Amino acid sequence: MSTPRTRRADAPVLDVDALIDDRSTEIIVCCGSGGVGKTTTSAALALRAAERGRKVVVLTIDPARRLAQSMGIEQLDNTPRPVADIDVSGGGSLDAMMLDMKRTFDEVVESQASAEKARQILENPFYVALSSSFAGTQEYMAMEKLGQLHREALADGTYDLIVVDTPPSRSALDFLDAPERLSSFLDGRLIRLLIAPARGPARLMTAGFSVVTNALGKILGGQMLRDVQTFVTALDTLFGSFRQRAEQTFALLQADATAFVVVAAPEPDALREAAYFVDRLTDDHMPLAGLVVNRASPSARTALSAEEAITAADRLRAGDSSSLTAGLLQLHADRVRIIEREQRLRERFAASHPSVPTAVVPAMASDIHDLDGLREIGEALADQG
Amino acid sequence: MCTPAPYAGGVSAHPDRPVDWPQVRLHVVTGKGGTGKSTVAAALALALASSGRNVLLCEVEGRQGIARMFDVDPLPYEERRIAKGAPDATGRAGQVNALHIDVEAALLEYLAMYYKLGRAGKALDRFGVIDFATTIAPGVRDVLLTGKVYEAVQRQARSEKKSGRGRDPVLYDAVVLDAPPTGRISQFLGVNSELAGLAKVGPVKTQADKVMELLRSPRTAVHLVTILEEMPVQETSDGIAELRAAGLPVGGVVVNLVRPQALGAGALARVRDGDVDPTAIASELTRAMVDVDAGLVGSLLDEARDHAVRRQLEDEQRELVAAEGVPTYELPRIAGGIDHGALLEMAQMLREQGMA
After folding, report:
1. Inside any domain, residue B163
2. What is the C-alpha to C-alpha distance for residues A344 and A8, in angstroms, rounded to an integer?
3. Which residues span the domain enclosing B75?
4. A337 Cβ neighbours under 8 A, 6+ residues apart
5. What is the mean predicted confidence (pLDDT) over A59-78?
6. How many contacts (CB atoms, under 8 Å) link A and B?
7. pLDDT of the residue at B103
8. How close is the nearest chain B Cα to the Cα of A245, in Å?
9. Which residues in chain B come in under a pLDDT of 50?
10. How far apart are CA B345 and CA B342, in angstroms?
């Protein structure tokens, strides 16, 4: 109320350098809807942090091919690899890896079950489908891998900062819900229901149980229901540790050493998802560092308004339909309108989330596929002057 | 029909031009995040809903994007009249209905419809089966979503045999599915074949096989939305290859958010090369009653050069899209944003280019 002359809602500025220079920041999670440049933002943050002296590992989910090549991670082998050609004069380092969800899942199974049991599970057709192709697995495995990396980093000190890119979920919330869902499922009656017949005498089954198993049998067919039960029983030994790990990861995400960076583009859908995500993080007491708005249109270079430009272009076209000057004016008008629209969208976000620090990154002329491009993005992220 | 049809530059509406997808009942629209696939799906639904035809527009990602685009209250799990379609040459429109597919509701409906479960359905819910199936169980979500879409498309086929009784639900001439993004589309549409593989026999297999049969038939077309940038174009090309490998019918590519075509090729080249006389521009501006200050001409030319560079990049990507050899359609970037009016304009552009 004391700043009547502010041109726009003044969101506080997200100070990216302060965030990555702060040694107590151990994990940065980049999230947001698909197509907003999440992967590029995570890679740019990781590179910048490394060149400012942090020992960084960046976990990406689905990088563009050429970006992956330039970081030396086109191979999906689930192991962090050092990124070549970075400036290590500040004592930092950068490793990168691409998540292989099936491999991650297999490793969990192998580390938790006896060799015989592990083999049984890995060969089960349901397990194969679950671990390699069905939606949702990526979210669990990204969190699993984050937990692993963090434990390793604590144990041997290889890394002091983990930057995580999140899966391109239909909704970013899937990712946040993953550990909790798994947990609640494991406590559920369904698990007991599926495991009971394989384990015990029928007298343990209540009337309700048999209604449900009969219904499941009807839907799935007897053979398939037995396959599912065998699978769930085989996994049963693992479930306890799965749950424990899911809960640990959830706690890790809530800790002060974690910082969430919500990424968006100046588009209504992306900003709406961002707003929703910011609210969810706040509700779940997850530490939010701020919002990055990527791909902002470059600003206009003259104050000529869109209306004036269009009026003038129409005048010129009346005399000469192919006037170059009219074309220039029309382009200018289009540019001004887009900038105004993006501005309005950002103001709307800031009005409903006035305390969320924000950094705006202008659109680059072409796609980013090398370290120099990432450095340029990092520079733009940090320079919010 | 395989030539890129620019939306501007005098392509006139052809009242009796044949449409590119006359056989298709199910139009699946996918695209990388940020390419505007939901907008294109809505515009396509409006374009198809012409000459009295009924179209159902489905969304499956729980975003209520349709309600927002058409500025109506959030949609329930129920088919709702949402808009009149694009009028044809004689001014006759059709009706677009919209359906927001809610997974839990779809599961209960599905169980009731195919298995006549009644009380047992409720018991499943109490035991957390519904919750498990719709949130955790691998693939069930996708099975239900595709199953519901299948039902809406098949409804039409049933009526052809029985010639529609009065109390039947609405029959559709076409269904448009605003589908998951390109990276997930083959998996999403293929989920039923995965399932059919797991279930060797039984009701699940029968149902899954039927859905796959529709999705692989010429009555389905999967359209991909892209913008003229490297990554989305690459992903489109990968998506086409994946769809073909999975035996799913590839439709057209809709190139969205195309930059304004205010300058022709010659003018763009001159602007790029700096081969423009600033004094001529200044005098034209003065003639158009613009106050020309010291920086204005330079600023306009700078902006135009930026634009020309990006147009050149767009042209390179456009060639890559054309090389895919499928019909392409173009829609402009609309500076003011998307509302109902803009959607209708886009629908007309799609009709002019023969997509509907």
Report:
1. yes
2. 9
3. 26-101+141-261+318-352
4. A306, B335, B336
5. 77
6. 223
7. 84
8. 17
9. 1-13, 158-166
10. 5
Residue of A nearest to B118 (CA): A215
Q: Which one, of B281, B284, B259, B282, lies nearest residue B270 by Cα?
A: B281
Q: Does pLDDT of A65 surpass 80?
A: no
Q: A298–B306: do the CB atoms touch at under 8 Å? A: yes
Of A309, A324, A331, the CB nearest to B260: A331
Q: Is residue B312 part of a domain?
A: no
- Indicate the pTM of the whole model: 0.86
Residue B96 lies in a domain: yes
**Structural domains counted in chain B:** 1
The SS3 assignment for A262 reads strand
Instruction: Look up residue B255 and give its DSSP letter.
Output: E
CATH number of the structural domain spanning residue B36: 3.40.50.300
Is B32 inside a domain boundary? yes
Chain A from 288 to 317: CB within 8 A of any B CB = 298, 300-302, 304, 308-309, 312-313, 315-316
Higher model confidence: residue A239 or residue B102?
B102
Chain B from 191 to 210: CB within 8 A of any A CB: 191, 194, 197-205
Residue A322: band (very low, low, confident or very high) from pLDDT cuts 50, 70, 90: confident
- What is the chain A residue with the closest CA to B305? A328
Looking at residues A327-347, what average pLDDT do you find? 94
ipTM: 0.84
CA distance A6 to chain B (A): 24
Residue B112, chain A, CB below 8 Å: the answer is no
Question: For residue B111, what are the CA distances in angstroms to A218, B118, B122, B146?
Answer: 10, 8, 10, 15
Under DSSP, the state recorded for B136 is I
Query: What domains sit in chain A, N to C, each tagged with a CATH number?
Result: 16-307+330-382 (3.40.50.300)
Q: What amino acid is encoded at A1 in this protein? A: M
Mean pLDDT rounded to a whole number for chain A: 83
Q: Looking at chain A, which residue has its C-alpha nearest residue B227?
A: A35
CA distance A342 to chain B (A): 10
